[in-house]
Design brief:
The structure is a homodimer of 291-residue chains. With 291 residues, chain A is α/β, with parallel strands linked by helices. Chain A has eight helices and 13 strands. In chain A, the strands form three sheets. Chain A has a six-stranded parallel beta sheet, with helices on both faces. In chain A, strands 7-8-9-10 form a four-stranded mixed beta sheet, covered by helices on one side. Chain A has a three-stranded antiparallel beta sheet with strand order 6-11-12. In chain A, α1 packs across α7. Chain A starts with 7 loop residues before the first strand and ends with a helix. At the A-B interface, α1, α3, α4, β12 and α7 of A face α1, α3, α4, β12 and α7 of B. β12 of chain A pairs antiparallel with β12 of chain B, so a sheet runs across the interface.
Chain lengths: 291, 291
Amino acid sequence: MSNLKSQIRVAILGYGNIGRAAEEAINAAPDMELAGIFHHNDCLDCIDADVVLLCTPTREVQKFATVLAARGICTVDSFDIHGQIWNLRENLDAVCTANKSVSIISAGWDPGSDSMVRALLMAMAPKGITYTNFGPGRSMGHSVAAKAIQGVKNALSMTIPLGTGVHRRMVYIELEEGADFKTVEAAILADDYFAHDETHVIPVESVDALNNVAHGVNLVRSGVSGETHNQRFEFNMTINNPALTGQVMVSCARAAIRMKECGEWGAKTMIELRPIDLLPGTKESLIKALV
Amino acid sequence: MSNLKSQIRVAILGYGNIGRAAEEAINAAPDMELAGIFHHNDCLDCIDADVVLLCTPTREVQKFATVLAARGICTVDSFDIHGQIWNLRENLDAVCTANKSVSIISAGWDPGSDSMVRALLMAMAPKGITYTNFGPGRSMGHSVAAKAIQGVKNALSMTIPLGTGVHRRMVYIELEEGADFKTVEAAILADDYFAHDETHVIPVESVDALNNVAHGVNLVRSGVSGETHNQRFEFNMTINNPALTGQVMVSCARAAIRMKECGEWGAKTMIELRPIDLLPGTKESLIKALV
């Protein structure tokens, strides 16, 4: 890039699947440079960056975001516990506002870009029902829950969409030596993660041999615009999960810096972002190309 | 509503298909009241409203928006000449900023909500190609162009999507008494509106008998997130065209008022709006429901 001074300096905290994908997205961005990769037990005071992508486990997000926001450093996370998003936003908003920084929270694909689509569809047809159908794809939460069951050596839980937001769970397990399949199966089916969905437990020799980061969404809304019914909308995607999450976080890092520069401090979810702020380039070029 | 003082007072200028649909959307909105319906030859000084929806022909938008913005009144239009959107924004932005008002321009479904989807998909997969496939549905511009041909009494031009942004034009015409079909057909095929697309001209007894405001979009992107190719996205809708346009304008009227109250004056396209601002309700309720 010709003008390095205008580059956004983006650091990564946590270097798993999403951290690695985020690194690739930073390197591919014309207006960013990598300001370092840090591990979650590194000293946060060492981080010198405009914005830090929190690619750590979701439960560690608030702790790290709070420390960085207090230093005036923007953060982006993909916090994905739907029921706790508002609380996270409230807690971080106060720290960000006091320290003139911006935290963009729950910036992945769901919550994240799917949330923006849901909001837009509600604006287009305010009455109606939106169904978000996930998969086929691996559910990290359900895989971890299955692996925690006694007798399970390794597990992969696939989410299969059955429509209208109903999902089947296909749970592939490697048994511990001497474990009884029927006992393990019963324990999985009784677990709160699985008890409410149609669940199939399948013993396999190697869970690793099934591993695949492909995922998908089918998001549908039938609704009413004004007094006109039968307005139908559908959003589909089939994607590499960590690659999309990393990319969305990197695009949100750009929005965080733009908002910080405009004095729009605080914690924001993606439905509070302007789509144009996610993109590199001038307003004129983007409006001419996309509107 | 319990508190009438907090209602957004929305007026309609122009009362064709879109004006009527906008009226229904205003009446259905929990936070709005209709502040009057005005015809394009009424005196604009009589309009007393927080925001005016410009449901006039697209070429009259700038004139009306300029007068209203100068009085500090917000406007929303669905200006749809893609190549002139940036100029309209530039011209209105100066008037709005000087008079502390907000004009949301090109707020329909394309340009409009489709533009927001295109921007979001580019943020999710920055490299790649987006194709917007329109229809099947009536093209107003092409219908008017066909009707202007000598010997044509009435015309309906349907846009048929062939994929990758290529479209077929199905032009249904009622001939004037004594007009020669072959001559008329040749004139239509030679017209600049039709010369670049596969076009079929079909004589019918009654164009009115074919009329239908259904329309649709199939918007697809295959792109690259970071360094990961084959990220696939698709947005589909089948809708009543004026009903959706009117609804989107009404949702944007809400955003205009919110932005005006925050001092974010100027002219904006939809990719410059936060999705949350399009929706009624509190931030907390919307974030809990949609994110």
